[in-house]
Amino acid sequence: MKYLLAIDAGTTSNRAILFDEDAHVISVAQKPFRQFFPHPGWVEQDPAEILATTVGVCAEAIAQAQIDRKDIVAMGITNQRETTILWDKKTGKAIAPAIVWQCRRTADRAEAIKDAGYGDMIRQKTGLEVDAYFSATKIAYILDHVEGAREKAEKGEVLFGTVDSFLLYHLTGGVHRTDMSNASRTMLFNIHDLDWDDELLKLFDIPRVCLPEVLPTAAHFGSTLAEHFGISIPITGMIGDQQSALFGEQCFEVGEVKSTFGTGAFVLMNTGHAPIISEHGLLSSYAWDIGEGPVYAMEGSIFACGSVIEWLKEDMELVDKAQETAALAESVAGQNPMLFVPAFTGLGTPYWDPDARGTIFGISRSTTKAHLVKAALDAIAYMTADVVDAMEKDLQASHDRILVDGGVSHNDYLMTTLADAIHRSVHRPALVETTALGAAFMAGIGCGLYKDISDIKKRASKAHILSPTGADLTDERTRWKKAVAVTMANHMD
User: I need a labelling partner for 405 at 20 to 30 A (CA). Which of 88, 142, 154, 330 fits?
Assistant: First the structure.
């Protein structure tokens, strides 16, 4: 039996999962790492802690499995995207905290670029909306705010990478590469030419020499130093987490849709070998290339999902466990008078309002915590439905199902509400760790363990299907859209 080790470098924790060649989970190890919020709307992480927890979970997963380490034929890396790290080429140490994808500190810079008339050019080249969500303005911020950083970057002495690239550099002892799926989320990568774009680099004032080499998602990126895990493991797959989930869900046909419910929620549709530049606020990204040419995805990004449930639990102390939210929501009879727009760090697709902040409507003396919990779960479902609606307008087609994964997809109330909102069934695979599975599949393709897509299809897991109940949510979604409009129209300075 051969094995594949997948690193799933998430937003709040890192995990390693060892799969056998038949895609069965052999062992899992996970460690959380800290988030820092130095100012409202700012989110930072410690790159050294990201690295340490990654190495730790890999070692733990390998030890748990009690297998011959030589049978681990390859490693795949999937990661939180857009999060930006700059580090010293010689020492490998980060020169500043990692600026997380959720961070809004560069919103003013993004708005200035949009106001200057560059939005359409950037959209056509990158498939992205101009927004602080992406890496470009984050890179420029660090170069501008760390003394000497820009000069060193121009000499190639300071390097940039998203989390995948940072991990690769340290695991391999100095290989500076990324893959095209992650590169396509920087707002610096031309998704048609498949290269860093000189016009964009000039616009954001970022030296090309500090950027990593870009390879397809299935390729030989390098091999780990033996000192880390007692064996040198080839790294033959790297892919951004949402594209990895699309691959892990086996959405190989044009028009297939998945939604990953994690810290945020991300809805992706396979659009085939040509990118679609959206007219409805969606993003287009490079999805993967397994030797058959680039495959692209249309994406909707919802910034608040699991973070909403964490807020209910940790900050508001309304529940002891996240699992309690479903029962609380179901306890509310009839129409919920409360609406909640959880714009903690702005609104993503299809609204793209970085300045919007969370708003609650309909509070009365009879309001209970159950009303707020239900409003929070409904908001996640309605934001997802808004993205699906936008996708249908761009592709001019509808589909009879949506595949879901991620920790929050276990919430049956939320998934059933989504099914009713979009009038189609929700399919949740038995193995919801599809992000890690996608990275393992990618590494398997990259090392030759799997020959092609048909080889991977043989390893599909069964899905639990949640069908629409027939509830008519038309009025509820109309109220929701009014609440979003009011939230966007009433920014508080």
Answer: 330
- Over the stretch 242-267, which tens digit does the pLDDT of each residue have? 999 899 988 898 888 899 898 889 89
Average pLDDT of the residues in 66-81: 94
Average pLDDT, rounded, for the chain: 92
- On whether the CB atoms of residues 488 and 356 are closer than 8 A, the answer is yes
pLDDT for 406 equals 83
Quickly state the pLDDT bin for 222 (edges 50, 70, 90).
very high
When comparing pLDDT for 398 and 64, which is higher? 64
Predicted confidence band at 348 (pLDDT cuts at 50, 70, 90)? confident
pLDDT tens-digit readout, 440-461: 999 999 999 998 888 888 887 7
CA–CA dist 469, 425 (Å, integer): 10
**pLDDT tens digits for 35-49?**
999 998 899 999 999
* 3 state SS for 241-262: HHHHHHHHCCCCCCCCEEEEEC
Amino acid, single-letter form, for residue 456: I
**What's the rounded Cα separation, in Å, for the pair 312 and 86?**
33
Q: What is the pLDDT of residue 346?
A: 86
* Burial class of 231 by CB neighbour count within 10 A (0 to 12, 13 to 18, 19+): middle
Is the bond preceding 350 in cis, omega lying within 30 degrees of 0? yes
Distance between CA atoms of residues 279 and 142, nearest Å:
32
